[in-house]
Amino acid sequence: MAQVITIAGERLFALKAQNNEQLDIDTFIFANVPGQDPNATIDRNESVPPVGQQVHQQIVQQVGRVNDNVVIYSTVLDSLTGPFDFNWVGLYSSVNQTLIAVSHIPSVSKTITVPGAAGNTLNRNFGIEYSGIADLTGITVQPETWQLDFTARLSGMDELTRQLAADMNGKDWFIDDGFKVVPRSTTNTFKVTSGAGYVSGLRVELIQDHILTLQSYPQFVYVDTWFDGDASSQWKPKTAFTVTNGEMDDYIDVNGKQHYVFKLALITAANSVEDLRNVDGLAQKIEKIDKKNGHTLINDNVNRILGVTNSVESKLKVIVTGDSLSFNGFGYPAEWGVNGGGYATEQPFGLMGWAYLMRDFLLSSSGAFRSIKNINWQTDASANTVGVSKNHGMNMNVIRFSFLDDLKKLVLDIDYSGTSSLIVSSAPLNEAVKFTIDDVEFDNLTETGDYKGYGYKKIPITSSFIKISNVRKYTDESIKGGVIDVYGTTGINSVKCDITGKGVWTSGQILSEFDRLVEPYAPDVIFYIIGANDIDQGVPVNEFYENINSFINRARAIKPDCAVILISTPPTSSWANDKSISYIEKMSEIASKNNLTLIDLVHELKDINPSSYRYDNIHFSKKGDDIFFNIIKKYILSNVNVETNKFIPSRESFTGATINGLRRNSFSCSFLLKTTGVTPSISYVSDYGVVEVAEAEYFLFNNIESVRVRIPFGMSFNGFNEVVNSSSPKQGIWDLYFETILPNQAIVFYKKDGGVGIPIIGSNEYLHISLTRSTAQL
User: Fold this and answer.
1) How far, in Å, CA of 63 to CA of 125, rounded?
2) With helix as H, strand as E and coil as C, how does 659-699 read?
């Protein structure tokens, strides 16, 4: 229903006020206008409908003064008035022949009393708001209760309470385990835990656990809340739960009730639930703010936004920008060519500064993420893990598949049922290849052109088995084969994080390159570490303040709800902390004014010995990157589900130090060793591919011709037997011996007739070798 004061009415008010004359409004007009939309905007130039559409006129029967600027005009249609239908009501001044106000409503039937049936009685009111309207109309009496629409007033009170709760505690949050979704002992059943929380500021309470039964995965669990009354006029929030694999938004139901929905959890399997709730209310947020000793200020909205990275369809865009501390390219081998004064996009892809750790952590936190080393695959190409490399991220958790020709293929078994993507390392033009997946052509050519092009590239896939074949050189397809480096798989819309900073830059220089470093990425979340070069170069604190303020305004011009995390300079040996604090205080003012998050590194690192985290006068060492990353995890990534994360990040990646932190699937596999000429050959016969290609070589062992087989890292030897070909058993006189060749164990095989060694090179005999991998092994 819409209601307005007409332009003509407003002009009449002004004219009467100017001439110091009383305004007389005396008539209600009722009409039935064909095709009128009660929800459409009313044209304030609207006039009285034609006589043929008018159904009734009646005098104003009651007036009331709400305050100096609001008066009410009312009339009652009694049971003897009618019958007619109406959807248009006008308030009219017959003395001045002026339509004052108009209301468009859904069609109403006015019935009349007839023998055996009483007609209805209706009252209609117009509230007129205009400066000084009470004096202008001469209305002094208080309105009767029937003249006031208390529904609107009470709804306004309800909305004010809801907004107040949201402002104080956050839009959506839950108390302890309230509304937490957890698996039950009965397969495919789950419970929503009893308790309390807030959905869009509306307080909801679940008196007892609510049971859910699922038939398929993955599924989201939503709580649907609304405010409603019962027969005794008791109003309170109501709740319902919806299980769906789609997205839900707030909505208005057929009865006009506003519903607020919140995504509580993502259930990916019968025993796997990702909790998407926020449990930080006002009390928890106060605990996070240490105003006495520092300026760290955490806006809970950041945790909620980044918490949805656990969702398989998060679609979040994140960037990290600022000075050289944003990518921290220090402490790497000199031959990597890291330039701490350059752009982050020009640095080697294998850097593992804190921002890269966070990028990979967010990518792998998705419920759809699968590391290549946790995927079952088979291939007739050669496969091996990549050693120390500046061209690969993800702690070197990548397998390189080398296709010697276009006939080789790779098949990966995907256990995620949603829309997925294969994550590969993109390559520069001279190294890129083309390939097909299920007859669709793709390539691994870089999308950005930055630092040799190395980076993540996601290839969309539509089936549970990915079959890669027909590999050939991108620039010359007549050259068959090539290399594809695979990280794993994830959801097609998983979170994307880019690192875009520039070393030695000040806040003003970052601002001047906003259209290069920020705007093209359209970020939902920005991590902005800045200040060290401003202090070092003597940029005035007020200018520093204005630069950051302008940065925030430009970011929110792209996306109004963009969440910005400001990060201060860390302690440095180049100047006293007091000098840094004056700049951090300005960052704190901006954070408070704009409802942002600020991490005060001077405070956060004040009790830690600088030698344990500092590479030089200010930049982080390897250990420092781990410390800072854990600060980010504590404050910013608290809602990211670490429990299901399959990736353990560390700056030590380029030494392979943290590879033992991976969780693995257990399985058994086997391969055939053939004693061909020159060198032994290996081929696979099991259903699952070996994680790394086993290696074999001939050598003399105690002057006996022998073959050494290096077991792939993380595998254990299970047994062997001699076979005629790929399957037929054969009785032989092979023996074995274990030796340790770091970092892997090796097995030595040889043949002896009594004490005499038997030649094996070129004998073309087969050994069937079985291996196992447990969950404790890589």
Assistant:
1) 9
2) HHHCCCCCEEEEEEEECCCCCCEEEECCCCCCCCCCEEEEE
Q: State the DSSP H helix or E strand holding residue 105, giving kind and residue range, or none if neither.
A: strand 98-110
pLDDT level of residue 664 (50, 70, 90 thresholds) = very low
303 and 281 Cβ atoms separated by less than 8 Å:
no
Burial of 30 (C-beta count, 10 Å sphere; 0-12/13-18/19+): buried
Alpha carbons 395 and 383: distance in angstroms, whole number: 18
Q: How far is CA 103 from the centre of its chain?
A: 44
Between CA 346 and CA 358 the distance in angstroms is: 19
pLDDT tens for residues 189-214?
Answer: 999 999 888 888 788 888 899 999 99
How confident is the model over 622-647, as pLDDT tens digits? 889 989 998 988 888 876 654 444 55
Better-predicted residue by pLDDT, 159 or 467: 467
Q: What is the pLDDT of residue 144?
A: 72
Gap between the Cα atoms of 463 and 108, Å rounded: 56
User: What is the residue-wise DSSP string for 554-620?
Assistant: HHHHH-TT-EEEEEPPPP-SSS-HHHHHHHHHHHHHHHHHHT-EEE-HHHHTTTS-GGGTBSSSSSB
User: Per the omega criterion (within 30 degrees of 0), is the bond before 50 cis?
Assistant: no
Q: How far from the centroid of its chain's Cα atoms is residue 112's Cα?
A: 60
The Cα–Cα gap between 322 and 714 comes to 40
